[in-house]
Every structure is written in C-alpha cells, then in structure tokens.
Amino acid sequence: MSVYEKETPTAQLARGPASDSPDISVFLPVLNEEPNLRPLHEKLDRALTQLGRSAEIIYVDDGSTDGSLAVLREIAAQDPRVRVIALRRNYGQTPAMAAGIDAARGEVLIPMDADLQNDPADIARLLDKIDEGYDVVSGWRKNRQDKLFTRKIPSMIANRIISWIGGVPLHDYGCSLKAYRRESLADVHLYGEMHRFIPIYASWSGARVTEIPVEHHARTMGQSKYGLSRTIKVIFDLMTIKFMASYQTKPLYVFGWCGLLTFVVSFLCAVFAFLMKYANWPHHADFIQTPLPVLTMVMLVLGIQFFLMGLLAEMQVRTYHESQQKAVYAVRERIGFDK
To answer: Is residue 339 a part of any domain in this protein?
Structure first.
C-alpha cells in the first residue's frame, strides 16, 4: 500500500503540487539505491509535510544500473512535488549535485544523500538556523555511524586540513545534508570533487556560514560508493582551493615567487662556479668539471618561464572578468539606491 493512501485529506492538501518558486528545494543524487528509495521518500515526505512550507524534491539519477530509475518514476507519478533528472551515464557526485542545483527553483536549497544515512527530520532544524540569518548551514555528523579507521579518522584529518586551507572552520565537510540560501550559490560552479567545498565558495562571496549536529544512521541496504581512493582527489582539489583562495585574481604573485626563487638558485650556482674556478674555494674546479654552470642556465631559463606564465595568467584573469563582466566583489545589500 502506498504511503499516500493512508493519509488524511489535510496532509494531502499540505503536499500539493510543486510551485514555480517553492520555499524549499531538496535534491538528492542517486546511484544504485533501489532498496533505499521508497523508505527514504516516505521519511522525506513526512518531514516536508510537517514543515508546512511549499517544497519540491529533485532526484538526480547518476547513471544507476539497478532499478533505481524505475522506482523514481513510480515515486514521481505518486507525488506531484517530485521531479527526476536522469543523467546519461555515471558522472559522479559533484556533477549530479550541480544538476540538482541548476534544476532547483526554491529559495532554500537542501542537498542530501539517498542512502538513508541522513535523516530528513533534520531539515526542520537546518531551516530554523537559516531563519536566524545564516546563508549556509552545514550538517555535522557528530555521532557518525561509519568504520573508524577507513572512514572516520581519514575524514577527521581531511576536515581539519580543509578548514585550515579554506578558512571556514567546519567539523564535517563530507556531510551532504546542508541548507543554502539560493543567492549564496549564485556564483558557485562545481568541478572535480568540489561539492564538499561549497561552503568555502559561498563564504568567499560573503555568505554567513554555520553548522549544527545532525543525525547519522548506519547504512542497512545497498553498498557505499565512497572509499579511500577519493582521498587523492580531495588532495588535488585542495590544491585548487588554496590557489583560488590566495591567487585567483593575482596569479603573478605565485608564479612571480617561484620565478624569484629559481633566479636566486641560478645566481647562487653562478657564484659558486666562479668561486671554484677563480678563488679555488672550497676547491679548484673548471666550469666543465662541475654541473653548476648548466644548473645556472637551467634555473635562469626556468625563472624566466615562471614570470612569463604569470603574465599570461594575469591576462587570462583579466579577460575572464572583463569579457563576462564578472565583478571582483560581492554586494550583500544596497541602501538608498532607490531614492
């Protein structure tokens, strides 16, 4: 029996069809979660009905090879708030999240996992925090129900590093359950495994970010899609985050420092080569008897290349901002401009 056949008319009325601009958009990437989808949607439906706000639910099927898409079609036929996006193949969680963000029409966007480990009942608490004036509310799986050595400890270390590099101190970047005001995601473009860094991107645009503890349940059905192999990808993405945080609008600074360092090494090699030939210090050696002259020229050329790359990067940054009329700042509020 469908969960909707047992409802009161009041609950059915509270559900209603999704409007063109609902209060809430919940979107969930789905990959081979067939046994979890029906119980998940029942919990999600119950949580959203109790809120008393208009909502839409977007399931993004990321190339599932089981019966997930068929189940999603059934759920969409039963619930008018549900929309389903079926990707052509498995692109990964970040592209699936991007598809959900692009399709969402709500004022508050809430991503969550489809494996029943996130609790839809926590959505109300996230919204309460949003109503306090925050732009981003991140879930913190304080009592995480995962394996200690393969999941919890690596995650703890990664979260410390991400918080340090990104400048946004959160305990749990890997928790998918978050809440975002729509405007905080206006300039966020996702690549690689960047979905976990959305709070950092939003913070760069001036968003007010906080976190609250949320429930986390052990997986009972299906298989986890995460493993230690993702750690390497996160490290590479962290390098991108650090570069964008410090040098996105001034790339010559990083290339210039690298070029200056190589020039110093080149100069020191030349000095030592002359000292060895003409001052016999620390011992006599002709230029052909030591690699220092070759190293001097290599480092000199490398330094010049670093500077030229920095200048090219500066030109690209200016082209990027000017051709698309992208501002290098973000305005939270304008006062008195309508007078």
So the answer is: no
Provide the CB-side half-sphere exposure for 209 (13 A, CA).
26
| Cα(38)–Cα(114) distance, integer angstroms | 10
d(CA 281, CA 272): 8
Is the domain of 285 the same as that of 297?
A: yes
Q: 219: which 2 tokens?
A: 């997986």
Q: What is the pLDDT along the chain (339 residues), one digit of tens a residue?
A: 444 444 544 344 345 566 678 999 999 999 999 999 999 999 999 999 999 899 999 999 999 999 999 999 999 999 999 999 999 999 888 889 999 999 999 999 999 999 899 999 999 999 999 999 999 999 999 888 777 666 778 788 888 888 888 889 999 998 999 999 999 988 777 776 788 889 998 888 889 999 999 988 876 665 665 555 666 777 777 788 778 777 877 899 989 999 999 999 999 999 999 999 999 888 888 999 999 999 999 999 999 999 999 999 988 887 876 776 666 555 665 655 665
Q: Locate the DSSP E strands across the chain.
A: 24-30, 55-61, 82-86, 108-111, 136-140, 178-181, 209-213
Report the predicted TM-score, pTM, of the whole model to 2 decimal places: 0.75
Residues 6+ apart with CB under 8 A from 65: 32
User: Is 329 within the bounds of a domain?
Assistant: no
Q: Rounded to whole angstroms, how far apart are CA atoms 141 and 224?
A: 17
**Containing domain of residue 267, as a range?**
251-323
Structural domains in the chain (count): 2
Are residues 80 and 203 both part of a single domain?
Answer: yes
Let me know: does 138 contact 201? Beta carbons within 8 Å. Answer: no
The answer on 221 and 157 residing in a single domain is yes
**Which distant-in-sequence residues (6+ apart) come within 8 Å of 122 by Cβ?**
139, 177, 214, 215
Element (H, E) at 307: helix 292-323
* Same domain, yes or no: 192 and 301: no
Which residue type, as a one-letter code, is found at position 102?
D
**Residues with Cβ < 8 Å from 98, sequence gap 6 or more?**
189, 190, 195
